[in-house]
Each structure stands twice: as structure tokens, then as C-alpha cells.
Specification:
By secondary structure, the chain is an alpha/beta fold. It has helices at 10-34, 41-61, 64-73, 86-96, 98-115, 118-144; strands at 5-9, 75-76, 81-83, 147-151, 168-170.
Length: 183
Amino acid sequence: MRGTYARARVVVIRGTVARTVMWIGAVGAVAGLLIPALTGLGRGALIGAGLFVVGLVAGVLQRRRWFARRAVAAGKAAFAVTLEPPHETRQRLARGHALWLLVGISVTAALGVVAGPAAGLGVLGCGVGLQLSVLLLARWERREEKLLWARTDDGRLLGRRGTVGEFVTTGPSAGNVKAVVHG
């Protein structure tokens, strides 16, 4: 690839998505606990506990091998790469996906009214599983003493696999990147 382009840390992108999914699930679970549901509180909580475990396993295993292959195949970042600070990545993702966050919270809250805390706990389990996979990826980065970076326009890393470009690596000190002052 030629020219200057921006990269964002894979761990920061995935962590932002995981925390968003956890918030959506937590709101849905609380809505299911506060409002009487069709399934009843006891049955909804029992189903929710099972869905939490299923969501947790699904979140941890989601694309685990795909990310491992990408991490091993990642080349060293070119000199022309601009690294995006973590707080800017989080802000960019929050602005870009605010509508989806609102839709997700609305849907899980509505499902909480119908099914009790079951739907919210399932989504919460998926978010916790994604967060665990992020921690495993961060552990790999520490062990290998490399940081993984993806293109900033590959934002979600949950979309279609074909739309995500190659990862690149830098040394661990690149994680302390500061914002560029625009003047």
C-alpha cells in the first residue's frame, strides 16, 4: 500500500465493541428485571443464565482462529503509517455507531419486557466473551512484544471478513502514541 494512512489498535477497537455490547445487554437485563415479563421473573432469569453462558462461549470463540492467523501473518508497519491514539479510536467508533447503540438498547429493552432478563443476559454474556477474547489478544501482544494495528476504515472488525485489510505490527512502545496537535 502506498501513501500515508492511519491505523488503530485492534485491541482498542474490539474492546470498544465489547464494552458497547455489554452495556446493551446490561440495559436489557435490567429492563427485564424491573418490568413484569410474559415469561415471569424466575423462568426468565433461568433462561437468561443459560443464554449468558452460551453468549460467553460464543463471544470468546468468535473469530478466535481468524484473529490468530491474522496476528501471525501481520507484517511490520511501514514508515508512512499514522497511528491513532486509543481515545480518538474510541471517540470515532462512538460517533460512527451511536445510532446502532440506540437501536440495540431499544431492542434489548423491548425484549426484556417480553422475555424478562433472558435476552439482555444473553447479549451481556456475548459482550463479556468478547472482552475475554480482547484480554487474550492483549496477552498475545505482551508475550510477542508486538502491537496489532488495523486500518481505521476497518472500524468494526465484526463485519464481513473480506472487508478487513491486513494487520500490521509495531513495537510495544507505539501503544503510547499521543494525539497529533492540529493548529
